[in-house]
Amino acid sequence: MLLEGFKTITIYDVEKLKEVFLKIFPIDSELSIDMSSISKVDMVGIQLLISLVRSVNESKQSIKFENITQNVLRQIKESRCGEALGIEV
Fold first, then answer.
1. Cα–chain-centroid distance for residue 53?
2. Contacts of residue 5, Cβ cutoff 8 Å, sequence gap at least 6
3. Which of left, alpha, beta for 68 (phi over 0: left; psi -120 to 50: alpha)?
4. Residue 14 φ then ψ, to 5°
5. CB of 69 closer than 8 Å to CB of 39
6. HEC-encoded secondary structure of the chain
7. pLDDT for res 60
8. What is the pLDDT of residue 5?
9. Is residue 32 a contact partner of residue 1, using CB atoms and an 8 Å limit?
């Protein structure tokens, strides 16, 4: 799933992204999120992604994030939320 139309995952984007994520449930297999267009994420965005990970895991499915930009990786590392997202930073 490519997050087309989104350049950030911030407090200003979470309502729209939440709607996008709700439309993909239930998923049939592994959910793959392409983050190549995302240049910035804030703590509200990270919380949304953690919520998505938990929801997917609770439904006995799996999720992975792909093509994460260096800036976003740095922001995830600084937040110390990589483990909760299943992302090695």
1. 8
2. none
3. beta
4. -65, -35
5. yes
6. CECCCCCEECCCCHHHHHHHHHHCCCCCCCEEEECCCCCEECHHHHHHHHHHHHHHHHCCCCEEEECCCHHHHHHHHHHCCHHHHCCCC
7. 85
8. 87
9. yes
CATH number of 8-85: 3.30.750.24
* Helices 43-58 + 14-23 axis angle, to 10: 10
Convert the pLDDT of each residue in 16-52 to its tens digit. 999 988 887 776 678 899 999 999 999 999 999 999 9
pLDDT of residue 28: 65
pLDDT of residue 59: 85
Respond yes or no on whether the N-terminal peptide bond of residue 26 is cis (omega within 30° of 0).
yes
Q: What is the pLDDT of residues 63-88, one digit of tens each?
A: 999 999 999 999 999 999 999 999 98
Decide if 29 contacts 61 (C-beta within 8 A).
yes
Cβ atoms of 51 and 84 closer than 8 Å: no
